Amino acid sequence: MASLLQLFLHFLFLPFLLISSSSIAFSHQIPKPYVVYMGSSASKSFGLDAKIAESAHLQLLSSIIPRRESERIALIHHYNHAFSGFSAMLTETEASALSDHHGVVSVFPDPVLELHTTRSWDFLESDLGMTPRGTVPHQHSSSDVIIGVIDTGIWPESPSFNDEGIGEIPSRWKGVCMQGHDFKLSNCNRKLIGARYYNLQITLAGNKTLGGVAKGSPRDSVGHGTHTASTAAGSWVNNASYYGLAKGTARGGSPPSTRIAAYKACSEEGCSGATILKAIDDAVKDGVDIISISIGLSSLFLSDFLNDPIAIGAFHAEEMGVMVVCSAGNDGPDPLTVVNSAPWVFTVAASNIDRSFQSSIVLGNGKTFQGSGINFSNLTRSKFYPLVFGEDVAARFTPPSEARNCYPGSLDYSKVAGKIVICVSDDPTVSRRIKKLVVQDARAMGMILIDQDKNDVPYDAGTFPYTNVGDFEGNQILQYINSTKNPTATVLATAETARYKPSPIVASFSSRGPSILTENILKPDIMAPGIGILAAMIPKSTEPGSVPAGKKPSLFGIKSGTSMACPHVTGAAAFIKSVHKRWSPSMIKSALMTTATTYNNMKKSVTNSSNSFANPHGMGAGEINPLKALYPGLVFETDVEDYLQFLCYYGCSQKNIRSMSNTNFTCPKNSNKDLISNINYPSISIKNLSRNQKARVIRRTVTNVGPLNATYTAKVHAAKGLIVKVLPSKLVFSESVKKLSYEVSFSGKEAHGGYNFGSLTWLDGRHYVHTVFAVNVQ
Predict the structure, then answer these.
(1) Can you supply a Gene Ontology BP term from the record (predicted)?
(2) Which of 29, 49, 287, 499 lies 20 to 30 Å from 318, alpha-carbon distance?
């Protein structure tokens, strides 16, 4: 045992200089959680067990932490399967000293990450897939695909996790079902095969700690994890609805026998990056096939790829054949807001489906307007209430701009009580929820919000009469107020609108590319339903007035966000994996990207919430089309060597790359960020194409996964003035030729400045292999 430990220490921690006496001056620094990332796990090479690795990490800590503070020589989390490292309480000086150690790739403060169905799957498969149900033989295929959902836990009693008709748990499953004060071993079954939980303490700025767990449990107390898990792989539940809305069959997108393993790594306050890393490490060790993470860093505080816990964990998961699907973030529609943008992560944007939830406004003059929102109001057309504008009922000494935005404390309660209040959204720092609570607390009868940007996303106001209109309708309502002495209105309960057009559109909140970290990889990758998604929910009321009178808390809920889009792609990936069991994560990713749909249910190009044509920075390759992705014809295989080259081109040191990969990988001599565009990715992005330079040549290689003898012809669609050529323009595959390479040249001499978008499609008469590109002409 001792010799093994010495070997491990020698391998990872060659002679390490102790912190000098000068560091004593900094001993008053307040320790906080740090992540120490040490690259590839040595246990994969040496077969070392976790206890030996843990002892080595503790010995390293003891070499830098003063003896008088020995209580800090402890690991919060220890990583030793997919990758190596730990998290611990360190001062800034200690963290800096560790970062200089030869066996350490990066050391960074434990970051706080954000938490980012009935109709959606039918919409994808029938309306966009253009394939009637029952015509594809996949429906009878069996599957033992295992999805790991890293989120806020799970509500095991939900009917979405019923295991009726599902076979025995795969023997390759190595995970556990952790018990807790409110979670029993029997809560796991043949559908929900695993559940883990972690200490959920997170440390915010100023060393404030939130969310400590006295009694741990995998049970979801937020609802986010239950919703995402059921969207990805929930069992079929008939007559599901949210108090009568969105009624139908709730289901996941993968085969019924797909398994779920829940990893509770988040609370309502957010997620510890160190805990996310531990959950990824555990999920890979447990034997999952796909990891779904509807979580991410804020786009305002992005870290590079070696300081981002999701990017680190996902790299090693991909290295071990486990796909990682992540949400793109909810900071749209501004550009440069996409997160989770590492090329080995499958990054998902959000769209709507052909269903909307509308609440009618009836004015005293008889005019009716349709607003967006979910409310279970008891108001009717037979009674009207005074209608006022926020700035006209401002509290004393309150600026009109604050009252019109319904800031907390901005309204005069005596002027608001019993009336319907109009608020605007000039200031995005005050959320719709806060505005609604302000108006509701003032004893108003209802609220109309004028917010063009969020008009596509229904806010759930519970029983409070609420609706959201755009600028056009809002202006007409304000004109009515100014044109009459006693304006009145009523806000009716929400009604569901089916077959809504156009859909899909890019959700207003969905984060947009290009990525701040590298514009030479096109992000987001793909788009999926993320607006008004009905899925399983924890059956408890969180706020007064959230449950209609006489009703029990719903077993299902309607939520919006890229968090809801991510598990749709996870489910689609599991669906493909169930048919193509030997396909790698990059092959599945490629299949979904190159078969994605770029038109809506009106047979026109996809638009965004502003009714402008969407581009790949909003929707990636397009809306997922799971049925077409089963048989893509050609795929782009992006292997680990591509990702290592990416890290070289990005500027990571060869030393760190070798630590990450546990190889003697050598970076190309002429590594620079422009070469990132050449890694074998299913889309193309070029950050800089000068009008004065010669044509830029990009190389790609495709693998034939369709008929052995096939001939594909290239078809290019490009923005006016951008000259795109493909060589060769024809690819001929045979029994002996399964992989072929080609080059695409881009010339921007006559193109307009800024990003130019287009696509290259390979056609063989049966398959359409669609590759989108984004080229920034300088």
Answers:
(1) proteolysis
(2) 49
Assigned token pair, 708:
């052995």
Catalytic residue, chosen from 81, 101, 116, 224, is 224
**Cα dihedral value 589, 590, 594, 599, nearest 10:** 10
Confidence of residue 129 (pLDDT cuts 50, 70, 90): very low
Residue 227, in any domain of the structure: yes
Tell me what the mean pLDDT of segment 613-620 comes to. Answer: 97
Per the CB < 8 A criterion, the answer to whether 376 and 243 are in contact is yes
513 and 548 in a single domain? The answer is yes
Map residue 688 onto helix, strand or coil: strand
- Calpha distance 778→689 (Å, rounded): 6
In a domain, 674, yes or no: no
Q: Which of 327, 563, 578, 677 is catalytic?
A: 563
Which three-class secondary structure state does DSSP give residue 710? strand
Cα–Cα distance measured from residue 132 to residue 121, given in angstroms and rounded to the nearest whole number? 13
DSSP H or E run through 634: strand 634-635
Active-site residue 224, yes or no?
A: yes
Say if residue 150 is in the same domain as residue 214.
yes
Cis amide linkage into residue 548, ω under 30° from 0: no
Number of helical (H) and strand (E) elements in the chain, helices listed first? 18, 40
Residue 509 to residue 524: CA distance in whole angstroms: 13
Provide the domain count of the chain.
4
Q: What is the pLDDT of residue 119?
A: 53
In three-state secondary structure terms, 23 is helix
pLDDT of residue 373: 94
C-beta of residue 763 within 8 angstroms of C-beta of residue 731: no
Domain boundary among 494, 528, 555: 494
Eight-class DSSP state of 285:
H
Decide if 233 is inside a domain.
yes
**Listed residue (288, 291, 295, 254) closest to 139, CA to CA:** 254
Q: What is the mean pLDDT of residues 120-127?
A: 60
User: Which tokens is 123 given?
Assistant: 């919409």
**Mutual orientation of helices 50-64 and 2-12 as an angle, nearest 10°?**
60
pLDDT of residue 255: 81
DSSP for residue 694: P
d(CA 691, CA 84): 46
- Beta carbons of 579 and 135 less than 8 angstroms apart: no
Output the DSSP codes for 721-739.
T-EEEEESSEEEE-SS--E
Check whether residue 373 and residue 224 sit in a common domain. Answer: no
Domain assignment present for residue 664? The answer is no
The CATH number for 366's domain is 3.50.30.30
Contact 177, 195 (CB under 8 A): yes
- pLDDT above 70 covers a percentage of the chain that reads 89
Span between the terminal Cα atoms of the chain, in Å: 61
Closest C-alpha to 598, from 761, 424, 736: 761
**Three-state SS at 80:** coil
Give ∠ CA 448-556-362 in degrees, rounded to 5.
20
| % of the chain with per-residue pLDDT over 90 | 74
Which pTM was predicted?
0.91
- Total residue length of the chain: 778
CA gap 162, 237 in Å, rounded:
9
- Could you tell me the CATH number of the domain that includes residue 103? 3.30.70.80
Residue-range definition of the domain harbouring residue 753: 635-639+680-777
Same domain, 204 and 319: yes
Same domain, yes or no: 165 and 314: yes
Query: Residues 151, 281, 331, 354: which is the catalytic one?
Result: 151
Active site residue 563: yes
CA 441, 442, 445, 450 dihedral sign is negative
CA–CA separation, 229 and 231 (whole Å): 5
Q: Judge whether 310 and 83 are in contact, CB under 8 Å.
A: no
Q: Is the dihedral of CA 383, 385, 387, 390 positive or negative?
A: negative
Side chain identity, residue 275 = T
